[in-house]
Input
Amino acid sequence: MPTLEQPPQSDASAVCEEVLDNGLRVLIQPVHTAPLATVWCWYRVGSRDEIPGLTGVSHWVEHMNFKGTTNIPRDQIKGIIEKYGGYWNGYTWIDQTTYTETATRDALDRMLFIEAERMANCLYDPADCESERTVIISELQGGENDPEQLLDQELTATAFRAHGYRHPTIGWLSDLQTMTRTDLYGHYRRFYAPNNATLVIVGDVDRAEAMRGVIKHFGKLQASDVQRRATTLEPEQLGERRLIVSKEGTTAYLKVGFHAPAVTHADFLPLLVLDAVMSGAKGLNLWASFRTLPPQRSARLYQALVNKGFASAVSGALLPTQEPFLYTLSATATDGMPLDRLEQALLSEIDRVRSGGVTPQELLKAKNQLRARLVFENDSITNIAHQLGYFETVASWRMATTLSWQIDAVTVEEVARVAAERLRPTQRTIARFEPIR
Amino acid sequence: MAGLAPTREVLANGVTVLAKRTSTTPAVTVLANLRVGSVHDPPVHEGIAHFVSRTIDRGTERFTADEIAEELDRRGVSLACPAGRHTLSLACTCLVEDLRDVLAIMGEIAMRPVFPAVEVDRRRGEIVTLIRQDQDNPAVVAVETLMSMLYGDSHPYGRRLRGTVESVERIARDHLQRFHAQHCAPDRLTLALVGDIEPGRAIDTARSIFEQWKGPAVPEVIAAAAPSASGRRCRVVPMMGKSQTDLAYGFVTIARSAPSYHAYWLMNNILGQFSLGGRLGDSIREQQGMAYYVFSSLDASLMPGPLTIRAGVSPANVTRAIASVDTELRKLVTEGPTEQELAESKQYLIGSVPRTLETNMGIATYLQTAEFFELGLDYDVRMPDILRAVTRDDVLAAARGIDPQTATIVVAGPFEGPLS
Output
C-alpha cells in the first residue's frame, strides 16, 4: 500500500506542460510504442454554458467546425487526415468540447495545422449551417428512438432545476429549429480562443520538435476575453422526485439518480469506489471505459437484481464533472417483471448500503478493479491523451496521473459515509419508462 | 516492413495459439475463438449458439457461476462471450500477473461448462428481454428484416442470431450441453494472446491449460448456397411510436475467399466509408443534410455475405434518401470510381494498418481474422501490395454486384409507406 512517505510512480514526469503567451496550455507526452501520433484540442465550453433559446449550440458549433476554414477549403476536408491512415472525431458534453485526430506520426504537423485553423478560421457558410440543422435534428430523433436515452434526458431535466447541466447536450428541438447562423458564429467566436483551450499531443513524437510545431501554428493566435458565464448553483433538493415516461415500447426501464460531487470534491473517489461495489468498476475514461461491460457479476446490484430475475441488466454511472452532476443507477426490467418490484429491490439494496456500508473485502475488490481498469483504459495514445485533456478541462491533468494512488487511500469509513449521505432518499430522482404495448 | 510477425503454434490436440508481445501497458488481452456459431443452429432451436454464449461462463465442472464471477471480478476482469454467425468468442483483458489464473478459468469455461439449470432459466429471461428490446429498435428491425429477405429462412444468415421468443423457450439445458459437446472441440479453438508477455511463455501457459482437452474433430459446416437476387424488393415495417426511421438497403455479395474481395473492400470504402461515409455521406449527410448517420458495410465471410447501406432519416425524407442511394449506386455501377478516389482509399486503408494494430485487442482481432480466413500470418505485410494492384476496372466490376435494380430495401420506423 503506498504511503505519503513512499509516493507511487507517477506518469506526471512523462508529461511536458507549457503555456504559450496567448494562454494556450500544451501537454506533450512522448510514447514510442507505435509509429503514431494523436492530437486532442479541448475547449472549456459545453452545454452547461448555454442559455434558453440556444440549447444545443455548443454541439452544433462542434459540427460546424468540421466544415472548412479560411485555409482549408470545404472540398479539401475529405481525405485531409485519411491520407495518413488517420481517424478524426470530436464530441461535446456538459463541460467541454473536444476534437481529435490520430494518424501516422508524419501527420503531426498537419494535425496541428487543422486544430489551429479550427480554433481561429472556421467559415460558417450559411448554407452549411442550414444543412447541418437537419443533420442534428436527425441525431436528436435517432436518440429518441432509444427509450433509455430518452429516460436519461428526462431524469437529468428533473433532477436539475436551475443549473446548466439540466438540458441535454444536443439541445431542445425548438431551439435547434430556430437558432441562426449568427447565434452559432457568436458562440464560436466567444469560446474558441487559445486561452480557453488545452492542446494535448501524445505518441511517437520528439518533445522539442512537437513544441516547435505548436508555436508555428498556434503562436500567432490572439487571446481573447473569454467570459464563461457564472452558472446558477443548483439549490438543495428537498425531497424525492419522480417521473414517468409513457411511450410505445416493449421493455420497462428504471433509473435512480442522486446528486453527485464534482470531480475535485473529497467525496468523489469514495463514491466511485462505492459504485464499483454496487455495479462494478468502469474506470474514468469517457472515451473508452463504457465500451465494455464492467466486472460486475459479483457486484451487489447484479447479485440482487439480475441474479434474482428482477432485471436483465444493471449499470451505474459516476462521471468526472467540473460541478456537481449525477450518480445514476439503471436497470432494465426482465420481460414480464413489474417495475414496482424492480424498484423495490433496487431501493432496498440502496438502503442496505446506506445503513451497513461496505466490507473491507468489498473495498479491496473495488480498488483492485479500479486499478486494473485504469491500466486498461490507457491502452492507446488516443486514450492516454484523452485522459490528460479531459482532466485538465474539468480539474487538472495531474489528477489523471495520481488517480490510482488516491483511490488506494479511500477507506471503508469514507465509503460508508458517502453512501449514507449521498444516497439519501431526499436526494434521489426516480425515473420510470413504462412501455405502452 | 517487418510487420507484426506473431508466433503461432498448434498444440498436440489441435488447439491453435497465436501470441504477440506488446509493451504499452502491463496487461494481456486474450481472445479465444471457437469455430461455432449461429450457422450451426438447428431451425427448431434458432438462437442456441447465442444461448450457449450467455450460459457457457455460468458454471463448470470445477467452478460455480459465483466462483467464476468472484475470481474474475476481483482482478478487474470483464469476460465477454459474444456469439456470431461463425464464432463463439471468450474475450478479456487482464493484468500480466493474472494471466495464468484468468486463462485457467477461461479454459474451464471453454472445455467443461455444465450449464446449471438455474442459470439456464435466469439467462433465458435475459435473452427474451433482449429479443423484446430488439423488436423495439428500428435499426435492429430493419437489419434483421433485410437479412431475412436477402437470405430466406432456410439459410443460416437469414435467421436471427438471438432466435425468437418461441425458439428460446424451447431450448432446454440438455440441448445446450449437447450443442457444446457436438460443436466445441480442440481443433475448433484458436487462442490469441497479446500483451506484455514473451510469446514462448504465453504459449506454454496456454499449453498447460488447453492441451489436456480431448475431443473429436468436428467437421466444417457446409456452406449453403446464397439465393440469387431477382429484382428489386421493398418492405416497410411501421413503428409509429418512434421518432426516426431506419433504412437498410442491401445485396448478397461475396465470400471472404473470393478473388474479388479486395476490389469489393475498396468499392465499399469509396461508396460508404471513406472520411464521413464516402459518396453516400457526401450526398445524404453533407450536401442534403438528411441523416446523422449513413454508411455502407461489407460483411464477406465464409459464405457470400451482405453489403448493407444504412441510414437514419426523418420519415419525411425516406423516399428522397432511397432515391439518393439509388443515384449514387447507379453512378458507381456505370462509371466506377475516379482514379483519385481509388488512390485515396488505397492510401487510407494501407496507412491505417499501424492504427488498427495499436491496441492489444486490435492486434488480437486481426490475428483471429487472419487465422479464420487463412490469410497467412504475414497478411499485414502483403496486404498493401494486394490493394495497390486493384484497378479501376476491378472496382467497377465489383460495383456491378450492387445494381440498385436488384436491391432489397427495408424501412422501419414511423413511416407507413408507400415506397414509390
Q: What stands out?
A: The longest helix of chain A spans residues 126-144. The CA atoms of residues 238 and 396 of chain A lie 32 Å apart. Chain A touches chain B through 76 residues (CB under 8 Å).
